[in-house]
Specification:
This protein has 199 residues and is mainly beta. It is 13% helix and 42% strand. The chain has a six-stranded antiparallel β-barrel.
Amino acid sequence: MFSGIIEETATVVGIEKDRENVHFTLKCSFVDELKIDQSVAHNGVCLTVVNIANGAYTVTAMKETLDRSNLGLLRVGDRVNVERSMLMNGRLDGHIVQGHVDQTARCTEIRNADGSYYFHFEYESTPEMRRRGYLTVDKGSVTVNGVSLTVCTPTDNSFEVAIIPYTFEHTNFHDIHVGSMVNLEFDIIGKYIARIHPD
C-alpha cells in the first residue's frame, strides 16, 4: 500500500530482458535501506526488490505489468518516481494507492499557470471500463506515474491535473512532454462504488 507521495526519482542503470520478463536495475539515495522482497512503487507500479548489489537494486516486471504500464518504454538513464510502502503509524498525506496500474494515458497539453502547470491527459475509455471504475471525477483522486493528484475538468476519457513547482521539480513530471505516456491508477474507492452500482 502506498500514498502517492513520491520520495524521489531513481535512475535506471540497467535493463535486462528475460523471456517475457524485464529486470530493471536502478539507483537512488535509499538503496542501502532496502531489503530483498521489499515492495517499491516505480511510476506507480508496485514491484518487488529481487537483488541489491553495487549500490543499486533490481526489480522484475512481468508481461501483464509491461502491457498495462509505461515501464516497457523505459531506457537506461530515465528517471522513475519511487515510493516505498506506507508505514501504518504515519499520516496518509496523499490517498490510498495500491500500486496496481490500470492503464496508460497520453499527455496532450501542458499549460503554464504563472509558475505552476496544468497537464492534460487522455486515455482509452469504454462503457465497460467505466463500469469497472476506470474513470475520474471532479476534485477526486487519481495517481499519475505514482503521484497522488486531484482531478480537474474530467470527461469520459480525459482530465487535467495542476502541478505545483515542488512536485514539478521533485518528480519526473519535469520529463513529461506532449505525447508522453504515463501510468494511471484510478481511485480504489471509486472502483468499489462502480462495482456495487454498475449502472
